[in-house]
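Build the 3D complex.
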Amino acid sequence: MASYSTNEFKGGLKVMLDGDPCNIVENELVKPGKGQAFNRVKLRNLMTGRTWERTFKSGESLEGADVLDIDMEYLYNDGDMWHFMRTDGSFEQFAADKKAVGDTAKWLKEQVVYTLTLWNDNPISVSPPNFIELEVVETDPGLKGDTAQGGSKPATLSTGAMVRVPLFINQGETLKIDTRSGEYVSRA
Amino acid sequence: MSADDWRPGATMDVLRARAGLMRRIRGFFDARDVLEVETPILGHAGSSDMHLDSLSLKARTMNGDERLWLQTSPEYHMKRLLAAGSGPIFQLARAFRDNETGRRHNIEFTMLEWYRPGFALEALIQEVAALIETVLDRPFPAVRLRAYRELFMTHLSVDPLQESADTLIRLRHQAARHAGAETAEWSRDDCCDLLMSLVIEPCLGRDGLDVVVDYPASQAALARRRNDSDGALVAARFEVYLDGIELANGFDELTDADEQQARFEADNQARAELGKPSVDADQRLISALRAGMPQGCGVALGVDRLIMLALGLEHIDSAMAFGTARC
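Done.
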């Protein structure tokens, strides 16, 4: 892998730091009136999701990380791993472990396309689409006519996710959910 | 590259305000009988400062194909004018520093530089404060002189002028703690530069103008060295801070030709250690010092930053018509 000097650091560049692949979020030059220049760099550790602030002397370099984001369709869970398939016609399959899937597990639905981040060809994270349509498998019976008022109740979706839904929603309905906030958007 | 890239980074209101500030700067010096001069941006000598990267280009001159340097400041040429008997002079010059891009840095920028033969450092500090007050039209409640060492003692409980191994360990530790940096191999100056930029600077210039004085002798650049009130060897230079931003850098100017020659050589040695190209000493500057440059002080001030402060701008791109990204 190539290495990158501080002046090449820009948002989105993937580099290795302390053995983990990281995504550069921000890079700011700081320099005293006379003297050494530094780069104050914000990086997101792609393994842990944590953000790091590090300072480098200008001109120092980091090794690039072999990290790729690839769209894949979710296939099934074998009790241990989650299996995905590329959508480019290659039918190439990848298995993601619990650590990589993380909170996205509750939004996994067969045939939906997710973004997998691969590091050295291994999935390290799985991101859901911003919106997903899921069926309600359990909720209190709907209140007829209560379509305008506020008020909400819990509902369990087909993937196991729990969301707050309006009172008029019934079991068996399909809903559009925002996966970023985990909130109900509308009936699908 | 986007379809909107042709537009200036500054609004027309900012450009009009900028023109007004430039007029005030010229008016300030006119009223004080300081002569405006223009010197070349291109020269045969580059800056030897180990932390500055000069840009150079090939030109066909009367000497054939030559490498010429874009100035990192108009210092060398202006000092030659002083040696030639110009008296007090100022210049609004374009300067270039490679590798410097950021919120407060653009590779090409406008520098206000002026020289006051016969002035002591304290007199020039007062004049810098007066200029900033005039240009910003904002009287300062206080102009405070802050010794470099005292700032480190207050903010970090470490004496930066101590040359002991113990001090170096403490500086490296502080730098690592505050910056998340691998500092095990860093020099004392590296640690001090980092701590100054990241920890101390942001606190300076609040409710008044802070002027940092008595820098470590190792950071003298082209300033004379002198003993501070405790007898420690320090650099006779100052930096001016307002609202956490470094605005100006002043020197009690080195006028000794031999010492200047020695610093050029020391600079190039330091550059070699950093793997940076060697820069030929400016022999015309040495000759000018040998002919006799009057003792005095000089200062350089970042005009784009002054405009950022005057207009409350967050990014240097919005203080100039076309930053490097747009030109």
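The domain at 131-187 of chain A is CATH 2.40.50.140 (OB fold (Dihydrolipoamide Acetyltransferase, E2P)).
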